[in-house]
User: Which sequence fits this backbone?
């Protein structure tokens, strides 16, 4: 029997329409060098309508790719709303990629139009002659000296009227695409549909996950080129959550100013950003973070000390989220379950998260056998569901899938209540004497030492044990902590045979284009002899 329900498609245009009238007065703030600007949801949506009309005039048709090379700002948000709603595909380009990777991605996705921030025009100029398929470049602001023909964004949309007639679309049609950060091989494209975006946004409004709602104002630090800003832009329009867009002003001190000035309730970004905010917050006597009901930290393991420090020093709860480009990204959020005391909550917040309804999850061993959800068996996480990718755009990658499940490459345990604990990326695990050492656990633990600002652990070859951990440490400014002291500190937390004997102290750690520790770059530094290593 068929149900009697209507089968209206889930389209992004209807998220836009909803936010436009229901939350017309909500605001989007954008940081500029001259201070904050702000615009209402109603105006942002009208500007998106004008943008759609202007792109149509330019010849953009269904399924054409419109790329963005932009920081987090209001105009970027307008492209998020307009491009998928008109039936074209938004392709968010990572502004921190090397020029040749950027050219590869633009050509692979067959981008037709690029909308670019003025400060990123020089980056585009470097690859312009290698991206012949791009027909138009639209610049978000005045340029003194354009290195190639450009269209001015304000003039472009200013020539159109609001009130674009958004088309009817198939809900499974492509809406947005994003490339993985490509730590191995070429970056791979993931294509999100209108339907997947809708369902993912609804899941993000659940109180069991982040619970975005119309009381919230969100400081959106995660870049809009990193998995659709973790879905927050669409969720904001759906839930009436105001957004603060920090552009390129991402240092701890600047974020602290934004928080104290605009008093967001939620902040979203990777742990390295929050570690830097914590440092900045400690350096000021008037720090006030009490507007924040939660900081969502994800994209990398969140150290226990960070969660404790935000709560104890600033009264802010940190939630951890787990996800990847292939998963839209949110799969799990570490909301503590009912019945857990405030004191024990932290034991849940340090886990990668509890899996949200809609995502099917399992762990498997090397033979592909499904393991128990007992919090003990260790295996690779595999996922399927309506916002989990089933393939890559234009790339055959059978090794990343098994019987319709996405193989994540992340290793860990799953407990009977659905909490994921990540031991490591499979390729970052350290194999010592036939047993595995978790680089994640070592580095998140050592970062709890008061003399350590950041730390990353990688494997180095060892004649006797095959591999041993090397811990690379950035000390806090006044710290003189030694390798032996850190090893002694660690010995309270991890097995003796895990304790690293190789240590290196550096001024800064290499970071990936989305702000995580770049272990591939660290391995290269070691292989090229650029790190001074002490062996205890
Ligand atoms: P990306 O596609 O660049 O966002 O990278 C996804 C990867 O980030 C995942 O496969 C994990 O290895 C890592 N990751 C994301 N969230 C977490 C987390 N909460 N804890 C540990 N690793 C994480």
Assistant:
């Amino acid at each position: 029997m068929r149900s009697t329900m209507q089968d209206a498609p889930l389209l992004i245009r209807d998220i836009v329409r909803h936010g436009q009238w229901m939350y017309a007065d909500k605001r989007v703030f954008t940081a500029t060098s001259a201070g904050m600007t702000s615009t209402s949801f109603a105006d942002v949506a009208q500007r998106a309508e004008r943008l759609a009309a202007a792109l149509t005039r330019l010849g953009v048709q269904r399924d054409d790719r419109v790329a963005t090379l932009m920081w987090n700002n209001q105009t970027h948000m307008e492209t998020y709303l307009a491009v998928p709603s008109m039936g074209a595909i938004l392709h968010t380009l990572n502004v921190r990629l090397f020029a040749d990777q950027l050219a590869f991605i633009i050509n692979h996705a067959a981008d037709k139009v690029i909308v670019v921030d003025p400060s990123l025009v020089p980056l585009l100029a470097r690859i312009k002659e290698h991206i012949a398929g791009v027909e138009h470049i639209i610049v978000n602001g005045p340029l003194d000296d354009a290195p190639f023909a450009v269209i001015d964004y304000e003039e472009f949309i200013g020539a159109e009227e609001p009130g674009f007639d958004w088309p009817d679309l198939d809900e499974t049609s492509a809406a947005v695409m994003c490339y993985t950060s490509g730590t191995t091989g070429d970056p791979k494209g993931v294509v999100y549909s209108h339907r997947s975006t809708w369902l993912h946004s609804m899941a993000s409004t659940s109180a069991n996950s982040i619970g975005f709602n119309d009381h919230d104002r969100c400081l959106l630090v995660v870049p809009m080129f990193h998995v659709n800003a973790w879905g927050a832009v669409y969720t904001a329009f759906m839930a009436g959550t105001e957004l603060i867009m920090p552009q390129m002003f991402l240092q701890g001190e600047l974020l602290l100013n934004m928080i104290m000035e605009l008093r967001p309730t939620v902040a979203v970004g990777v742990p390295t950003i929050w570690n830097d905010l914590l440092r900045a917050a400690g350096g000021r006597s008037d720090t006030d973070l009490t507007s924040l009901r939660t900081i969502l930290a994800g994209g990398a393991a969140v150290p226990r000390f960070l969660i404790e420090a935000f709560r104890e020093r600033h009264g802010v709860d940190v939630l951890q989220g787990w996800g990847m480009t292939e998963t839209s990204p949110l799969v799990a959020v570490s909301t503590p379950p009912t019945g857990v005391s405030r004191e024990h909550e932290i034991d849940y917040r340090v886990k990668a998260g509890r899996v949200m309804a809609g995502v099917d999850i399992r762990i498997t061993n090397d033979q592909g056998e499904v393991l128990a959800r007992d919090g003990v068996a260790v295996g690779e996480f595999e996922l399927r569901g309506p916002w989990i990718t089933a393939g890559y755009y234009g790339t055959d990658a059978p090794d990343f899938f098994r019987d319709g499940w996405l193989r994540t490459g992340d290793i860990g345990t799953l407990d009977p209540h659905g909490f994921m604990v990540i031991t490591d990326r499979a390729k970052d695990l350290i194999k010592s004497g036939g047993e595995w050492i978790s680089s994640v656990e070592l580095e998140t633990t050592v970062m709890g030492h008061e003399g350590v600002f950041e730390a990353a652990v990688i494997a180095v070859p060892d004649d006797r044990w095959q591999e041993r951990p090397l811990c690379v440490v950035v000390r806090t400014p006044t710290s003189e902590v030694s390798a032996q002291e850190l090893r002694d500190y660690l010995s309270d937390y991890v097995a003796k045979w895990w304790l690293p004997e190789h240590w290196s102290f550096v001024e800064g750690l290499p970071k990936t284009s989305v702000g995580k520790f770049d272990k591939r770059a660290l391995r290269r530094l070691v292989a090229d002899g650029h790190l001074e290593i002490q062996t205890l």
